[in-house]
Amino acid sequence: MTAGTTRLGIGLAAVARPAYINSGRATDLGARRSVSELRARSEAVLDAAYAAGIRYVDVARSYGRAEEFLAGWLAHHPEVDDVEIGSKWGYRYVGDWRLDVPVHEVKEHSLAAFTDQLAETAALLGPRLAVYHVHSATLDTGVLDDADLHRALAELRDRGVRIGVSTSGPAQADAVRRALEIQVDGTPLFTSVQSTWNVLEPSVGPALAEAADAGARVIVKEAVANGRLTPGTSDAPPRAVALAAEMGVPLDQLAIAAALAQPWTWCVLSGAVDPLQVASNAAATGVALPADALAELGTLAEDAVTYWSARSARAWS
């Protein structure tokens, strides 16, 4: 991170499309979610994030109009030249800006999908694109075994774009370790890893430590567990709520501080959807967790398969 900036990043997954799986969206966003309204909200979030010292922005082809909204914000702020942008390819948004569709995004990890989506990303972000992740890389899609695709990714790497993987699911660690093995022309292909880690689902932690030791940057996503670790939520573990109260900090700050405390973390993504949430998330960088608090948070871990099964069952709203 640049001196003077925070180790937080801002992600637009929850604010640049009308439906997502986070808790509390009816309260956070209300019913008014037109393109123009979410564009304005996204720009307000980006304004607040930049003012808070955040200099990493995470978007994806499947995050509704996230790349478009970010490109518009950058156009409105030509003075901003110190923001690093990471995007992702591998999913397409197919929700048609509705809440009630049965499918909101479709996954495809082929060379053709990469080629098409890179062109779409480049049309919006151009030379501002700094990091390009495979979206939710897993062993079963073949994306980590496709030599032709790896060569195409390496061509982008050799043009100065950092290549990475994002991971989800109970087998995240397997995907991270496989990605670290891949080299093209004698050079590691994947040097950025973005994974879900939080105090309820920390199973990928040892693999992320290995990634950091190998020289990759580690970005933590879903540190507040899709809203489960935020103030007022109905499904937060009671002990986490009590610990936050004992420390005198909001639950979101406790959760993000725990992710920041991991020695392998380069950046933790905020998924805030309004400036007040941005400010609360950013304040987590000032929360120092004592060793006994971190140890107690470690006891909250759930079985990974159970955690991901419940996450998969969350309704888009």
TrEMBL record:
InterPro entries: AKR2_Oxidoreductase, NAD(P)_OxRdtase_dom_sf, NADP_OxRdtase_dom. Residues 42-297 form the NADP-dependent oxidoreductase domain. Pfam families: Aldo_ket_red (PF00248). It comes from the Bacteria. PANTHER family: D-THREO-ALDOSE 1-DEHYDROGENASE, NADP-DEPENDENT OXIDOREDUCTASE DOMAIN-CONTAINING PROTEIN. This is Aryl-alcohol dehydrogenase-like predicted oxidoreductase. It comes from Pseudonocardia cypriaca.
